[in-house]
């Protein structure tokens, strides 16, 4: 991922360039994360590759470290040791300005959609372009080209006819599609979807996951999606990484995995131990 910050006024160096390994967009190696010096390791030696065009499912029980792993890619989790690379950017080495530029290029989708409910669907999608603009634009002066693009994206996610409705009037599945259109409005180099279907019924979960996967395939944008429902991961991903207690327990091509090979990710006895 090349960081396209506004040109630095002085001769500030660009973010730490890393050797371009193969074509993996994301390369995480031996990542360890602890949130405080004396706190336990939340991630303990995790590796992760995500290639362009690929949707990778992150599977694991609550507390296994899924969100932390995603946050490491945008500098929201402390990288205690190991490397986190997105494109040619070494996330651990970024300064605040570079981090902002990186975040502008990562589309994020959350369980609770995070829309502004009283604003129109169209305006919510347009806010995706604010990552690349100054705060001046917050007053609502979007250019015609941006509006056209936002409408195209709403068509792309199947809800173009809802553009002028208040976001809060939409169903959960529709709101999540608005959130995906908003993420696409950023022209993201990577999409992180943290439990995007945890609040949706099974039918809408399928619609949303199929949409994310088609975006990965058709736009070539790598997608990392965390899920805690095993059948959804098996149906909607190219690869699965199963985490438990911050460690990678299972990793492989989805076509080569099944419920029994992934069972250790959800060791029932283990969850009972946690009380
Ligand atoms: N900001 C934070 N500060 C301290 N501990 C955290 C923080 N975020 C997460 N944790 C801890 O890290 C562990 C993994 O959490 P998380 O990454 O949210 O897992 P998951 O998304 O799989 O539920 C949990 O024990 C959680 O309490
Ligand atoms: Mg989480």
The CATH homologous superfamily name of the largest domain equals P-loop containing nucleotide triphosphate hydrolases
Structural category is: alpha/beta
Count of the separate structural domains: 2
Helix content: 25-40%
- Major sheet: arrangement of strands: 6-7-8-3-9-10
- Please state the average pLDDT score: 88
Radius of gyration, in angstroms, nearest whole number: 19 Å
Number of helices: 9
Give the CATH topology of the largest domain.
Rossmann fold
Q: Describe the biggest sheet?
A: 6 strands, mixed
Shape: globular
Q: Please report the total strand number as a whole number.
A: 10
What are the secondary-structure elements, in order, as H or E? EEEHEEHEHHHEHEHEEHH
CATH class of the largest domain: Alpha Beta
Protein name: Phosphonate ABC transporter ATP-binding protein
Pfam families: ABC_tran
GO molecular function, one term: ABC-type phosphonate transporter activity
Organism: Aeromicrobium phragmitis
What do these coordinates show?
The chain is of the alpha/beta class and 275 residues long. The protein folds into two domains: 23-105 and 189-275, P-loop containing nucleotide triphosphate hydrolases (Rossmann fold); 113-188, no CATH class. It is 30% helix and 22% strand. It has nine helices and ten strands. The structure holds adenosine-5'-diphosphate and magnesium ion. Adenosine-5'-diphosphate is lined by residues 35, 42, 60, 62-68. InterPro entries: AAA+_ATPase (IPR003593), ABC_transporter-like_ATP-bd (IPR003439), ABC_transporter-like_CS (IPR017871), ABC_transpr_PhnC (IPR012693), MetN_ABC_transporter-like (IPR050086), P-loop_NTPase (IPR027417).
């Amino acid at each position: 991922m090349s960081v396209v910050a506004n040109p630095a006024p002085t001769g500030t160096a660009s973010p730490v360039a890393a050797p371009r390994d193969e074509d993996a967009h994301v390369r995480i190696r031996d990542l360890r994360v602890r949130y405080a010096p004396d706190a336990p390791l939340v991630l303990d030696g995790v590796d992760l590759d995500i290639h362009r065009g690929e949707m990778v499912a992150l599977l694991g029980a609550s507390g296994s470290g899924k969100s932390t792993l995603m946050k490491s890619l945008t500098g929201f989790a402390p990288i205690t040791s190991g490397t986190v690379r997105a494109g040619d950017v070494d996330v651990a080495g970024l300064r605040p300005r570079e981090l902002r530029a990186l975040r502008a290029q990562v589309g994020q989708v959350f369980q609770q959609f995070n829309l502004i409910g009283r604003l129109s669907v169209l305006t919510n999608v347009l806010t995706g372009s604010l990552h690349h603009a100054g705060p001046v634009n917050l007053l609502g002066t979007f250019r015609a080209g941006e509006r056209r693009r936002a409408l195209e994206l709403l068509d792309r996610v199947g809800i173009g006819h809802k553009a002028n409705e208040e976001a809060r009037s939409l169903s959960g599945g529709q709101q999540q599609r608005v959130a995906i259109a908003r993420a696409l409005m950023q022209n993201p180099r990577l999409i992180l979807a943290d439990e995007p279907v945890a609040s949706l019924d099974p039918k809408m979960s399928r619609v949303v996951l199929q949409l994310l996967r088609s975006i990965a395939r058709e736009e070539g944008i790598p997608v990392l999606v965390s899920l805690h429902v095993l059948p959804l991961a098996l149906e909607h991903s190219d690869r699965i990484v199963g985490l438990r207690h911050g460690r990678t327990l299972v990793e492989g091509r989805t076509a080569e995995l099944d419920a029994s090979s992934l069972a250790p990710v959800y060791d029932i006895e283990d969850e009972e131990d946690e009380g």
